[in-house]
Design a protein that fits this description.
Shape: globular
Largest sheet: 24 strands, antiparallel, barrel
Number of helices: 4
Structural class: mainly beta
Number of strands: 44
Radius of gyration: 28 Å
CATH class of one domain: Mainly Beta
Oligomer: single chain
CATH topology of one domain: Immunoglobulin-like
Helix content: under 10%
């Protein structure tokens, strides 16, 4: 072959490669068209309507887990169309062989690898920051959720607590399963006149332990990340879907008795409800009158061996839509607003949170244009003479402005205003009794999602003019397939006390960092593994004289008082089965500013001004959640203050598919301290039975024995979803004294503390 021929061949080869790449890139980066149908669609899981033949399709799904560099083993095809009322989605999940499918139960809002399922993510404002998610599994179980902050941190930015009305049907065949969905335009928020949205589709495949998506998602990010979505192109600009008002009334009858106070039974019949009004297609007004949250699932108790308050997440539906507009200011442990401060008080005897009266409230939230979101919350809570609470008004106002590609800046104002009762009326304002906060946050998210971060400053002031103080801080995260790096810093003032917020510690400066490196071996079993290192240092300007050598050096270097630090050397392994394991060897340091009982038993306290430098092992293992029997177990054991601690906790679960599952939550702490301090064996045992007789009838019973507070709690909840998002609940709650015994018996159930029975019905009515 001549030189000229070689050159021509080489040129032709280059042209072919260029042409192939051009075609491939065009296919990979293109979106999907959605065209209006003129023929009806029947939701039956067959997908044989003529409308689907002309609908555009999304195919060639990419693996996300265990690899992100290849096509999915079992492919998926999704088609979309719409009419005046609904967006329709047809999803066909192909299989390479006949197989069974996995679901923990028939309960709504499934999550995690222990499922088969397909989900659709709609970024209706194309801001790559907020989105709606709808999903269904082969058993016809639905889920819907909200994604905020770009989905960058996964669990924290993805909530399934949001409920709304939509429709679906599924059918299982030998070589595939099919899902049809009809999502009302009234269910989601969007900007009128837009000619395109962003969208992605992803599938969970339990057989191959794979997760795949239409638009490729790098595996170092969460699969709900909005940075990589493709365009959904409408054949005509969208218009407002018409009047969109939902009324959700309830009626509840309850009987309760407080045995500790030896009070007779109290019987009540209450009425109330919520309303949802679409001010525009992108802005929603929520109203509530005399809300009742008795049907909300009980909190899972914890053994409290901490010196600081424990955070419990919000579960009440009224506070959940667009919750990030209010709840995501600041950082974990330094939140200027925490909705559970409204209408929730703690029962010290049972360890349970109890509902305080809320007269009513409103919440306006959503977008006023493509780049600006607003939020306004106003709630009026009643007084509680038993714990000395006055009637109180809570107001929160926020605004969030998108800047750059995916970043935003937000502002918040919080006001807690008490009302006096000098003449028998709750509604005489007392301007001398208030607690207020103003603040600003900058949230960073780059186009490629490699860099994420936050910077905030909040200032709090009240009527006493002594708690005027602020908090400032931020973090930055860098993610690649190999490296995960997190840097964090915050300073919280001594008098920073936002009463409607959650502040774990005050009068501190914190500096923390985490470094992980990931290996991706050519292994038939292991997906990734790698070492890590992190440190967390907490100090202030106090004259602390530590005995610990490292703390003393830091004191000298920075001229500060070290309060706490921990240093961890870590390793983690993730298997292709979705099982994972991590271990860390930790050195801690703690300086006690206040006296503290580390046994958690109200014994003799360690004196203030003492310090401790324990070593310990922290480890966690999660088994393959696709199995009928699966579990997770963790430990935090080693030296503990001036003694030792052996800790074992976890959950053991068995799935009786599809009827439901049974699980056992457990925590054991064996604390040994020298005399005269208390040693202790602390148990927290929580058996749970979750039965789903059909997709509409659920029964959950949850027992919790907590030896730390000598309490046995029983919560049993029967739910009948008689119409979409319309329910009847029967809830039974009981609390008993329960004492640990030394004669071989585990514990003895004593006298009852409190008991309640609630029957509640709710109905979702669209006007």
């Amino acid at each position: 072959m001549s030189t000229f021929d070689v050159q021509k061949l080489f040129l032709i080869l280059l042209l072919c490669i260029h042409f192939h790449l051009t075609i491939s890139q065009g296919k990979e980066t293109s979106g999907i068209e959605i065209r209006k149908t003129t023929s009806p669609i029947v939701l039956d899981g067959k997908g044989d309507e003529p409308a689907w033949l002309s609908a555009d399709s999304a195919d060639r799904f990419h693996q996300y887990f265990p690899y992100d560099s290849s096509q999915a083993t079992a492919q998926t095809v999704v088609r979309v169309t719409y009419d005046d009322e609904f967006i329709y989605v047809l999803a066909i999940m192909y299989n390479t062989e006949k197989r069974a499918y996995v679901t923990p139960s028939l309960r709504r809002d499934f999550r995690g690898e222990a499922n088969d399922g397909v989900s659709i993510v709609f970024d209706t404002f194309k801001d790559k920051t907020n989105a709606f998610l709808f999903g269904v599994n082969p058993f016809g179980v639905q889920r819907e959720g909200l994604i905020s902050n770009g989905g960058g941190s996964g669990g924290d930015d993805f909530s399934l607590n949001w409920d709304n009305k939509w429709y679906s049907a599924t059918e299982v065949y030998d070589d595939r399963w099919v899902a049809e969905m009809a999502i009302p335009f009234k269910t989601i928020r969007f900007k009128e006149g837009l000619s395109s949205w962003f969208v992605n589709f992803y599938r969970i495949d339990s057989h191959y332990a794979e997760r795949s998506s239409w638009s490729p998602i790098p595996r170092q990010f969460d699969i709900v990340s909005l940075a990589f979505n493709r365009e959904l192109m409408w054949d005509q600009p969208l218009q407002k879907p018409g009047a969109n008002i939902s009324i959700i009334p309830y009626v509840a009858a309850n009987t309760s008795r407080d045995f500790e106070k030896d009070e007779p039974s109290q019987n009540n019949l209450t009425f109330g409800g919520d309303a949802k009004v679409a001010v525009s297609s992108a802005l929603n007004l929520d109203l509530t009158i005399n809300p009742d949250f008795s049907q909300v699932e009980v909190d899972q108790q914890v053994t409290n061996l901490d010196r600081f308050e424990i955070f419990f997440p919000e579960r009440r539906q009224f506070f959940l839509e667009n919750a990030d507009l209010f709840a995501n200011f600041g950082l974990d442990g330094t939140r200027p607003f925490f909705s559970r401060r409204i209408g929730v008080a703690s029962n010290a005897s049972t360890g349970q949170n109890i509902q305080n009266t809320i007269y009513g409230g409103l919440r306006l939230s959503g977008k006023i244009n493509n780049n600006t979101r607003i939020g306004l919350l106003n709630m009026q809570a009643g007084r509680d003479r038993s714990i000395g609470l006055p009637s109180t008004n809570y107001t929160v106002a926020t605004v969030q402005q998108k800047i750059l590609n995916r970043s935003n800046v937000g502002f918040i104002f919080v006001n807690k205003q008490a009302f006096q009762d000098s003449i028998g009326s709750d509604f005489t304002i007392s301007p001398e009794q208030y607690n207020r906060l103003i603040g600003a946050d900058f949230n960073l998210a780059t186009a490629d999602n490699k860099w994420n971060g936050k910077l905030f400053y909040h200032y709090n002031f009240d009527d006493l003019a002594v708690n005027n103080d602020g908090a400032i801080g931020g973090f930055v995260s860098y993610s690649t397939p190999e490296w995960n790096i997190d840097l964090l810093s915050r300073k919280v003032g001594k008098n920073y006390t936002p009463e409607v917020g959650f502040v774990r510690r005050r009068d501190i400066v914190q500096i923390a960092s985490t470094y992980w490196y990931n290996f991706y071996p050519n292994s038939p079993t292991i997906q990734s593994h790698g070492p890590g290192f992190d440190q967390d240092l907490v100090f202030n300007q106090s004259d602390v004289l530590p005995s610990d050598a490292l703390a003393s050096k830091i004191n000298d270097w920075l001229n500060v008082g070290v309060l706490d630090y921990d240093v961890n050397v870590m390793y983690r392994i993730r298997w292709k089965t979705t099982a994972n394991f991590n271990i860390r060897f930790r050195k801690e340091y703690t300086y006690l500013f206040d006296e503290f009982d580390p046994s958690g038993t109200k014994g003799i306290k360690l004196p203030a001004g003492t310090d401790y430098s324990p070593y310990m092992v922290v480890a966690n293992y999660n088994s393959d959640a696709r199995k009928r029997f699966f579990f997770n177990v963790s430990t935090r054991s080693g030296q503990y203050f001036n003694g030792t601690r052996i800790n074992l906790s976890g959950t053991i679960s068995y799935r009786y598919q599809p009827l439901g599952f049974a699980s056992l939550n457990f925590t054991y702490n064996r604390i040994q301290l020298p005399k005269p301090y208390n040693s202790a064996d602390l148990f927290l045992i929580g058996p749970r039975i979750d039965l789903t007789f059909t997709r509409d009838i659920f029964w959950t019973t949850f027992f919790q024995y907590n030896s730390q507070i000598s309490n046995l709690n029983i919560n049993s909840r029967l739910q009948w979803r008689f119409k979409p998002v319309s329910d009847i609940f029967l809830v039974y709650t009981d609390n008993y004294f329960a004492e640990s015994l030394e004669n071989g018996s585990f514990f003895r159930i004593g006298q009852p503390k409190t008991r309640a029975l609630v029957l509640k019905a709710t109905y979702w009515l669209n006007l």
